[in-house]
């Protein structure tokens, strides 16, 4: 086995992967809770810019499920950095167990500040993020910046847990900071005519007009909760929330479900990098 193959196996074991990868795992606390992920590189000439975290981690007497999609733009270094550091920074916040929502916001801010300080090493690109922390198989905390999305399925019905941070939605805030939102015919709205999301990590040249403050949502896991989907916009550009839920509702293996969603997005002509994590609760 080559050094590269060994490194890939190590990253897969702890749920850290990029490129055309897939993997799966399950909770030790509740064997019915499983996860799977699958990534496919898009048709652009640059390296893969989607990165994934999918793992269960024991912290003292508690079990955490850590799941994330990081979708880079003009960068694969920044989503790679997020993959290695964002959850660590969140969990290192002293109030994580007492005020997890507050800790998540502080962890996002700290991580973005660290990225901006490392611009010489990480470059001037950026990344969206959607993260989900499952505490003891009972409480799910979802946070996001940008347009990577989290959707939960309850009794067959899709419910979006994240917010797509589109520039047109935050036009007043951007303009109040001295920026502008372009709206050229045939193109999506963009911050300062450049970035198609209003919140992201990095993007130092735009940061004065760009936020990294996450939207945070809390969802309790109950008997009606079937599964959650985390995916980059390579999926959501071509599928609605309900279409994604309907496509995998009868696929019990989480990795097979994640792979099916990426394949369906390709069938629907998605040309972007596509990454998907599915967590099944039944």
Give your account of this protein's structure.
By secondary structure, this protein is of the alpha+beta class. About 30% of the residues lie in helices and about 30% in strands. Strands 1, 4, 5, 6, 7, 12 and 13 form a seven-stranded antiparallel sheet that branches. A hairpin with a 7-residue loop joins strand 10 and strand 11. It starts with a helix and ends with a strand. Residues about 5-20 have low confidence and may be disordered.
What's the number of extended β-strand segments? 15
Q: What's the number of helices?
A: 8
Strand count, sense and barrel status of the largest sheet are: 7 strands, antiparallel
Derived from helix and strand composition plus strand pairing, the structural class reads alpha+beta
- Helix and strand element order: HEEEEEHHHEEEEHEEEEEHHHE
Helical content band: 25-40%
Radius of gyration: 18 Å
Give the integer mean of the pLDDT values: 91
Brief summary of the model shown:
The chain has 282 residues and is of the alpha+beta class. It contains 8 helices and 15 strands. The chain is globular.
Question: Topology of this structure?
Answer:
Blueprint: H1 3-13, E1 16-18, E2 22-26, E3 34-40, E4 50-59, E5 62-73, H2 77-91, H3 100-117, H4 119-122, E6 126-135, E7 139-145, E8 149-154, E9 157-160, H5 171-176, E10 181-182, E11 190-191, E12 201-202, E13 215-220, E14 225-231, H6 233-236, H7 241-248, H8 254-267, E15 274-280
Antiparallel strand pairs: 1-4, 2-3, 3-15, 4-5, 5-6, 6-7, 6-12, 7-13, 8-9, 8-14, 10-11, 14-15
Helix pairs in contact: 2-3
């Amino acid at each position: 086995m080559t050094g590269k193959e060994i490194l890939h196996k190590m990253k897969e074991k702890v749920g850290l992967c990029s490129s055309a990868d897939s993997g799966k795992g399950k909770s030790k606390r509740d064997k019915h809770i499983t996860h799977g992920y699958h990534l496919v590189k898009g048709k652009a000439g640059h390296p893969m810019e989607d990165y994934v975290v999918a793992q269960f981690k024991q912290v003292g007497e508690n079990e955490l499920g850590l799941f994330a999609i990081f979708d880079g733009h003009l960068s694969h270094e920044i989503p790679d950095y997020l993959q290695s550091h964002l959850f660590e920074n969140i969990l290192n916040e002293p109030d994580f167990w007492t005020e997890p929502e507050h800790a998540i916001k502080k962890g996002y801010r700290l991580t973005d500040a660290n990225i901006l300080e490392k611009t010489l090493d990480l470059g001037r690109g950026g990344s969206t993020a959607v993260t989900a922390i499952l505490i003891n198989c009972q409480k799910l905390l979802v946070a996001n910046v940008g347009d990577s999305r989290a959707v939960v399925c309850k009794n067959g019905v899709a419910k979006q847990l994240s917010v797509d941070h589109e520039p047109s939605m935050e036009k007043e805030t951007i303009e109040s900071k001295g920026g502008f939102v372009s709206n050229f015919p045939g193109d999506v709205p963009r911050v300062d005519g450049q970035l198609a999301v209003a919140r992201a990590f990095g993007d130092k040249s735009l940061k004065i007009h760009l936020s990294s403050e996450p939207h945070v949502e809390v969802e309790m896991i109950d008997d009606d909760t079937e599964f959650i989907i985390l995916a980059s916009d390579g999926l959501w550009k071509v599928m609605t929330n309900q279409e994604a839920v309907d496509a995998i509702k009868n696929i019990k293996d989480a990795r097979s479900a994640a792979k099916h969603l990426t394949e369906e997005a390709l069938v629907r002509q998605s040309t972007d990098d596509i990454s998907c994590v599915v967590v099944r609760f039944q």
